[in-house]
């Protein structure tokens, strides 16, 4: 940076150097402006969601109130957070977010039951067991899995997982005739799409465990099983947790796959073969509808969006925390 | 055990040194015969034969890259962890070639412990570090684990420093303490042989001196084989010394005192007096 | 057991159960590793099967598919409008995201002092990467479509996609810049170049293959994104857009529109659409991998 010091004869900055330094400072300002846009994006998201959610709860946006608009609370927070019926666009509307929050959480938990064990096992296999040649094939395959658009996963659920895999099971074992959508197919498909996330980040964490520790255990007569479970996994644990949180966060915000797999029926149910609705599916259903701007049902989109955003924000902050902890341990 | 003197470079010249063990007769526990080790196409050990006696300290010295660590890692087959490593010839433990197909490296390592160059405690508590070997060997139920952990920590001269904080992480100890913890970890399952790969090279002189004292005590119960790049250390602590020079050749092997006072080979004399390496 | 051979040398150690345990465990995690592979194979087979049935039983003509826009009647529907819209979306997304993303990366890697503001920028970036894609759609809907009243136009979709992939472009560009050795920078400084001259003349050219690779992969992600486009209203049209200010529906939204229909004919149109989408993605990834390999062999 400081090439323009004033010491010594003949090396104080001449006119040419001066112009160059000016260009340098200008470039720095422009580049900082680019970086500032990313912060502006976050602020805009917060502002837009809160502003419009305010209109949902109070009948007027914050910006409208500021220019003298009136407001009164139309939807209470109690109803929103504890009501068990969600139908803002119904002729007798109800504004309890629980059914669609249930949908999101059910899909997320179900998906975690698929992605966490399978992703962790895959990471362990790749990091500790696989030969170079298997690894060089398995890793790109998982990358392909990660690169497939979510809409394609949704299509896979609606054309294969639900009718071909789950339909016969529901029919023969439980006597339930499965519909076009089911909660279970949503769980499975979101689980599949988050496996590569768990496996790749967990594997990175396992690879970062120094070989010294492995050798220390092998020298004590430990088997590969002991080394994997008692040395590698404990040493990589915060990195592995970070991968879980990322997968969970992704599952919460997942839209197209769950919409096509699990459906649009907001209800709280324990039946895995029934149709449910997640928060994101509700947002899609609103986008498909024709609600006018400013109506309660249009504004509900933002209230749900705000809850969704806050849920993933918490996950992202947790992920960040675990990642930093892991980096402190091994770097 | 037969000692097959005719193939070895051992000189049976017995003299008394200050370790106080040298006058005891040698019983061979680990023996190498015409051992060659290759990493891919590079030869790391070239036709080495030697007999390592029980309950003594055997030091291996030589310039870096001379193959002394590779030799050490053959004894408990830690070289198995390296894909490109190939071993030819025999290396026996109580007369049994450790590279025979029916030898299980896991079982072998339960008899032959190891301490590494860099202290490598697990990210676990001090207690769990020491108990680790007994646990993975499935012996935690047979023994009084608390007593064994204490015995091992006392054996490693660490007990007095850590007995009030056994639950704190092994990583919180100083470098020298960590290395003694690793020694405690190695002796807790009570192996017969302890391999040490430059155990003091990452430590300050005071911590290194403590480890040296410890090695002397360990030889009463265990066979210690130590690789070191520090000639004074080898002279201080070992009963026998093997000198490797570049190319993975064992140039001379014998009583430590004789090696240092009256080496047979000119190269060894040059190395010891600092003219080479 | 093999260990109790030699006169009981290792006879006191019974590793029978240990080895069984190890084998069972390896079998278990190998099976788990194959789960993802099997699912990928099933997915591809499923898509290929629908594609085949669509062409044979539903008589979907590929010529018509590529030359006709969407339609309410399945036998008249094609994919042309959606393909054109996606190509335009990608173009504008690239223009919007590339320069700002690269600028941010250069600032963070080359200029940013180690201050609290810089750490805030980094943390904000990590968070933005984790924001669900549908939220970017909400932002564009509220700020552009209804906020300044643009309506559901293509450029609004591009803005949503650009914001979505910006963190990806920034992170991959940062990695590419970090891979340029400091000796290269020092060589330039030693000739009396300023920081900006060094970046412009030496660092960026050296990092460009890596930056382009990352950008292509980010755009591949963008072209498959559905939710943000749905939010900005990309579902209500199926004709070809005539420019960035026209209404539009991209490939993924068209596929969604078809897949959500009850008619089997539409479902199979969606299958054919997916084959086209995946082919384009495959091509983009191929180009990215080619660039990366070429770059790696050069260094």
- The helix-and-strand class of chain A reads mainly alpha
Largest sheet of chain A: 2 strands, antiparallel
The tally of structural domains of chain A comes to 2
How many strand segments of chain B? 10
**CATH architecture tag of the largest domain in chain A:** Orthogonal Bundle
Q: CATH topology of the largest domain in chain A, what is it called? A: MetI-like fold
Mean pLDDT of chain B: 85
CATH first level of the largest domain in chain A: which class?
A: Mainly Alpha
Radius of gyration of chain A: 26 Å
Sequence of strands across the biggest β-sheet of chain B: 6-7-8-3-9-10
Structural class category of chain B: alpha/beta
Helix content of chain B: 25-40%
Q: Whole-Å distance between the termini of chain A? A: 28 Å
- Helix/strand order of chain B: EEEHEEHEHHHHEHEHEEHH
Per the principal axes of the C-alpha atoms, what is the gross shape of chain B?
globular
Report on the biggest sheet of chain B.
6 strands, mixed
Strand content range of chain A = under 5%
Strand order of the largest sheet of chain A: 1-2
- Return Rg of chain B in Å: 18 Å
What does this structure look like?
The complex is a heterotrimer of chains A (331), B (277) and C (299). With 331 residues, chain A is mostly helical. Chain A folds into 2 domains: 20-74, no CATH class; 78-329, MetI-like (MetI-like fold). Chain A contains 13 helices and 2 strands, in the order αααββαααααααααα. Chain A has a two-stranded antiparallel ribbon with strand order 1-2. Chain A is flat, with a radius of gyration of 26 Å. Chain B has 277 residues and is an alpha/beta fold. Chain B contains 10 helices and 10 strands. In chain B, α3 packs across α4 and α6 runs parallel beside α7. The radius of gyration of chain B is 18 Å and the shape is globular. Residues 1-17 of chain B have low confidence and may be disordered. Chain C has 299 residues and is mainly α. Chain C is 73% helix and 0% strand. Chain C contains 11 helices and no strands. The longest helix of chain C has 41 residues, at 16-56. Chain C starts with 15 loop residues before the first helix and ends with a helix. Chains in contact: A-B, A-C, B-C. The interface between A and C is large, with 89 and 93 residues.
